[in-house]
Each structure stands twice: as structure tokens, then as C-alpha cells.
Amino acid sequence: MNIVFIVGIIESLFFFFVISSKKKNNNIDKVLSAWLLLIALNLLIPLFIYTDKLKYIHLNGIDYSLLVLHPMLLFIYTKLLLSKDKKIKIKYILHASIFIVNCLLVIPYIFMDKETKFGFLYDSAFLPIVWIGTIWVTIVFLSYLCITSLLVMHYQKNLRNQYSFTEDVNLNWLKYLTIGLIVVFLLGSVVGSILCYIGIPLYYINYFVYTSLVVFVFGIGFFGIKQKNVFTYDIPEEKDHNKKTALVTQKDKLFAKNLELYMVKQKPYLNEKLTLHELAESLGVKPYYVTFILNKVINKKFFDFINYYRVEEIKTRIKDGQISKFTILSIAFDCGFNSKASFNRIFKSFTGYSPTEYINSFSTHST
Q1: Which of 115, 31, 110 is nearest to 64 (CA)?
Q2: Residue 157 has pLDDT above 80, yes or no
Q3: Please, how many CA atoms are within 13 Å of residue 63, restricted to the half-sphere of its CB?
Q4: Cα distance between residue 16 and residue 34, in whole Å
Q5: Band of the pLDDT at 272, cuts 50, 70, 90?
Q6: How far is CA 296 from the centre of its chain?
Q7: Less Cβ crowding at N or C end of the chain, within 10 Å?
């Protein structure tokens, strides 16, 4: 069992130093680094206990007081990642009050005599204070994980209204981390409680719990290193605008035509990282107004609107014979796509053909 703790501690500290040593170390990375240190500490305490139970049994329970910090840090990490200013606000620190409550619940158990603690570890002795603490941790865990999931879902729902691409910004990995933490929680709390109830000692149940935590650490470190900043632009005025403008005016229709003309002449879609904010800035209007025009007049989301022009540009270049000089993928990259997978998927969604099928079809019709 000790090898599991040692691997997890080394893993946590390794990712901690890698993320901390980033050239652009921001508040997002600092929260992630703090989380990795917390996990290392959460594994260090049981390492002592499992190495010499008689000597370190008094430490049992301290690691339990740290549990609520895991979903809390995931929430704060997600909140910072999706915020515009990326600043750690005072209200984030106020979440520590929940941690303090958890510590108060654990204090009676920490100061229990060694015999009682051994009884709980090996004989699944019923300790009311422990089960009260388990219920509290369960409520905190589920609450934070639900809120975090809602944040990610809301962000992904609006993704196509702000970006012309999804690579590096879809945050699917954050969903996987949330699911991973749920699995760790279920193993440690729900399944652990059931196994304790049927008489399996907690001492052995912890094997599975800590092993899952070590696997989870790898996910945190791996995705934490790869993650780039996502830049979100809140559009609160959009709702107000839609309420005030029940009918589309002639001015709106004229703007829509000018927008389409701008797309054809200036070709801003060639910028592979084009965002709603950048397009609105170049047009001299607010982002919410561009969203309103796209949704109410043109009937397209920003993502579909931009990629429609990219696909049309590719089709034009194929007709002009550029396919004889360049590969279809190089043309796609030149037209604003930034990955082969997204290009193939988007091209087929607009044309009904894969790029290769379209080229073959065009060649057949040409001859």
C-alpha cells in the first residue's frame, strides 16, 4: 500500500513544480498548484499511518478534515478559468468557512483515544461523529461538483456564440476532471460507507480510495500543464437588448447586409483564432449587438457564421484549381481552420461531403 502513497506524493509534487515553473504563472496555475500540494499532503498523512499504525494512529482524521477543499479548489479553478479578469476575489476566500466547519466536526474524532480509532479502522465501529462528518462532506462535495458542472455547461452552451473554433477552449477535460472527482468521492464516501456497514474494515477500503486519487492526480497534472487560458466575454446586455427589441428594424437588416459584405471583402475568417469580441471591435460595435444580428437576422451562431465563410473560401479555391498546387489540408489551414479533425467535421456538415469526396465530385462534374 505504501507504494501507492509514495507514487501519488511524487506525482503531485512533480506536477506542482512543473506548473509552478511556467513562465506565465497566473492565478489559475497558482490555484492548481495549491490543489496539487493539498493532494500530496492528503497522501502523506495516511502514508505515516500505514507505515507505522501504532506510532501514527493519532494522525488519523486530520486528512479527513482536508477533503472538502478538493471540490472547493476545483470550483475556484473553474471560476477563475472562465472569468475575464482572472483575479482571486475575497469571496473565493470566504469559501474557507466551509473548511473550518469541517475541521470543527473532525476535532472530536482527532482527539479520541487510540483504541477507539483502531476499532473504527479494523472493526467498522459505529462512531456517530464520523458519520455526521461523512454526511456533511457528502453535501459539500455534491454541492460544489454540481455548481462546477453547471458553470462548465453554461460556458459550453455559449461557446459557439463567442468562438469560431473549439480547440483549446471546449473544456471537455474539465468535465472529465469533475467526473473523476465524483468517482473518487463515490469510492471514498458512498461505497466506503456501504462496505463499512457490511463489515469490511475501513483499513482495506482505503486501498481503493487512495489508488483512485493517485490516478486522478495524473489527470489534474496532465490537463493542467496543457491548459491554455480561455478568454470569455460576458454579454449581459444581450438579454436586455432582445427584450427591448421585439422586432428587427431596418437598421438591423442593413447592418446584417453590411456584415456579410464585410466578410466577403475583408475576410476576417482567415484568422484561425477569430472571436466574437474581435469581430465586434473591428466593426466598431458591441459584442452583444453582433450576437443579436447573427441570432435574430442571419439566424446563425457565431461559430457557424464564420465557418460557413471558411468552407465557401475553400470551395472557391478548389474551383480555381489551387488543389493542383496545394493539399486540401494546407488550403484549409490557410482559410482559417486550425486542425484536420475540425476541418473534416465542419466541411462535411456544410456540404454533405468529406473534403476528398467533394474534390472527387467536383472533378467528375468538371470533366
Answers
A1: 110
A2: yes
A3: 21
A4: 8
A5: very high
A6: 30
A7: C
> Quick check: is 232 in a domain?
no
Residue 192 has pLDDT above 70, yes or no: no
* Backbone φ, ψ for residue 123 (5° rounding): -115, 5
Q: Model pTM? A: 0.77
Both 180 and 76 in one domain: the answer is: yes
Q: Is the pLDDT of residue 239 over 50?
A: no
Distances (CA, A) of 37 to 12, 87, 214, 298, 311: 7, 21, 13, 50, 47
Task: Provide the β-strand partners of residue 275.
Answer: 163
Are 55 and 204 members of one domain?
Answer: yes
Find the domain containing 81 and state its range: 2-226
The secondary structure element, H or E, covering residue 76 is helix 69-81
Dihedral sign of CA atoms 144, 147, 151, 153 in order: positive
CA distance 261 to 296: 18
